[in-house]
Design goal:
single chain; alpha+beta; Phosphorylase Kinase, domain 1; Transferase(Phosphotransferase), domain 1; 2 domains; six-stranded antiparallel β-sheet; two-stranded antiparallel sheet; 10 helices; binds adenosine-5'-diphosphate; binds magnesium ion; Prot_kinase_dom
Amino acid sequence: MFPWCFTILAFAPDLGNALKRVQSLMFGEEIGQGSICRVYQATCPSSNEQFAVKRISLPKSVCKRAEVLQRAAREAAAARALSDLVPHPDEIVRHFACVYDEGEDTIDLVMELCRGPCLAQLRNQTCSGCLPESRVRNMAAAVARALGHLHGIGLLCIDLKAENVVLDPTEQDPDRVRLVDFDLCRDIPGHHCRCGDEAAATTTTVALVDPTASYNTSNTNIVVPAGGDDHDKALTRDDNNERLWGTAEYLAFEVLQDGVAAYSTASDWWSLGILSYELLYGKAPWSGPSVDVIFHRMTNHRLLFPGPSQGGPQQVSVIMQQLIQGLLRHLPDMRLGSRGGAREVLAQPALSFQKSPGM
Ligand SMILES: Nc1ncnc2c1ncn2[C@@H]1O[C@H](COP(=O)(O)OP(=O)(O)O)[C@@H](O)[C@H]1O
Ligand SMILES: [Mg+2]
């Protein structure tokens, strides 16, 4: 249960009620772990509603603390930006609150609970380590719609990977998947700043959404704790060093070649190509022990779609191969999605059986 020592909560439109609801949440089992957090199931005892709470423990070391704080603030800012979307996209998990607990020195992000495993776990639960093409096509289409929504509000996803797509089955759609984890999100260059360094500074405005009120939002300031004197320097150093964002196997050709400055919406479409391939074949098309090795293989090794006779796990249709090839074009301008966005991707024969993106 949440202790009573929050400094600031983020919830609306009825702050008082929402506050009580968040404070009364009972924590249940751990359902996930990430690089900076643990994710728990939580229940509101009065209503029995269930939530997921991403608990980020703030490190004591000044530099690490600044980095983790910045990631938490980015996620809060992305959640704020996403809450402007009415209705909230089904393919993206909805955040309700961001809470700093002074006693525990933790930040809790309260969000919708997805009831299935992430796609990395789902894949590992199968004997072959991969999923049938029909399922992958459904999932790829949902992720394409999610990316379309993010790009539409000026955000780059950056960290699309199997761990960050979670199954959340419904009766109508047992394969419904939803995007989670927005702590690496960035603004699309040239767009109004939503979760760049300014928005992710020590004071951030986040959306406050009461889980009972459908689509009514209002804002309040949430003050996240200061990262120490070194905070700004740590951020500058981070940027100057051009530390790569995201996960090496998923990073686009241009990002490995030219660094983070080359990251664009096309780079997110590349990650969708890698994700689709990994779900179908059980591994990314190019992997290796270091970014350099991955880049070398990406540059020199052709994209292969081995059928069962060549040791592959399944025969993938030509239209699905074409989709992946289009998403994995080295030149970002030539890549599927780079000009026509989600509509262009969803219009591909492998995905066009899907419901319209509605964007
Ligand atoms: N809303 C949610 N419902 C269910 N599981 C979730 C939810 N959000 C995250 N998870 C699980 O927790 C894991 C870690 O969360 P994530 O946000 O990805 O953390 P990190 O930013 O540290 O990678 C995810 O890979 C996923 O398995
Ligand atoms: Mg993650």
